[in-house]
Amino acid sequence: MLAVAYGCFPDIAAKERDSSQDSGFEKYELSFSGAFLPGRWTFGYDFLYSGTHSSIPEIYRDYAYREKEFTYGVWTAAFTCNFSSIIALEASLSYEGGGKKTYRKSGVIGFPDWNLAHDTLAMSESRNYLTPVLLLKLHWLNRRYVRMYSSFGAGVAFCISGDRYRKGDEQAVVLLPSFQLNPLGICAGKRFYALAEIGIGTVFTGVRLGAGYRF
User: Fold this and answer.
1) What DSSP character marks residue 69?
2) How many angstroms separate the CA atoms of 38 and 134, rounded?
3) DSSP structure class, residue 105
4) Which H or E run contains 36?
5) What angle do CA 198, 153, 84 make, to 5 degrees?
6) Which helix (H) or strand (E) holds 102?
7) C-alpha span between 56 and 53 (Å, rounded)
8) Which of 6, 20, 137, 211 would bridge with 151, disulfide CB 3.0–4.6 Å?
9) Please, what is the Cα angle at 49 between 54 and 119, to 5 degrees?
């Protein structure tokens, strides 16, 4: 039907081509971005060990430890194929890293055998996620130097976990489902451009900033 329409109305096809050129439309894009709030960190890392207990002795022992959770952020490389000035498909690969360290406190009453001059690392847990995602992008504003869009997609995350205990080290690889919804995205520039997105999902939540190149 599109082929018939374009054949019957060549002026419409010509106008769309002109509009695409005026809006800075290019077939392909490469981009790199980083987010303030990684998605897996926002929803909570799935640590194998939990220091929460119910009995009084266990609660007292938990008080003798302190935990520090951290994240390295999430970084994404993406390749986009624009089928038209409106519809595009984006394939991205994201990395997120983080973990948790558990320390034995020094000078805690009831544990004289520890004899610690300072807090000592008792356990270290790490999480590294590699997440390929395929997203559909819909551009609803096309100007020469500014484009606005929405995108959504899904993928799978490879979670590489490493847990170091006093009894030894444990490592595992787990596959997890992933999703991402970005209601608002904006690109500013022509061949080289800056981008900003607002989204929620297992890749990132909040704001993502980056830069890209069209060709």
Assistant:
1) E
2) 18
3) P
4) strand 28-38
5) 90
6) strand 87-104
7) 8
8) 137
9) 90
pLDDT of 32-41, one tens digit each?
999 988 999 8
- The answer to whether 132 and 92 have CB atoms below 8 angstroms apart is yes
What does the pLDDT look like over 135-189, one tens digit per residue?
999 999 999 899 999 999 999 999 988 776 655 566 788 899 999 999 999 999 9
Question: Which residue carries 């690392």 as its tokens?
Answer: 121
Say which amino acid occupies 85: S
Give the list of residues 6+ apart from residue 112 with CB closer than 8 angstroms, or none. none
Please give the model's pTM, rounded to 2 decimal places.
0.75
Closest CA to 74 of 4, 131, 140, 142: 131
Please, are residues 74 and 34 in contact by the beta-carbon 8 Å criterion? Answer: yes
48's tokens: 């194998």
**Rounded distance, CA 94 to CA 194, Å?**
18
- Which residues on neighbouring strands pair with residue 177, listed in sequence order? 156
- Burial of 131 per CB tally in 10 Å (0-12, 13-18, 19+): buried
Residue showing tokens 């329409």? 5
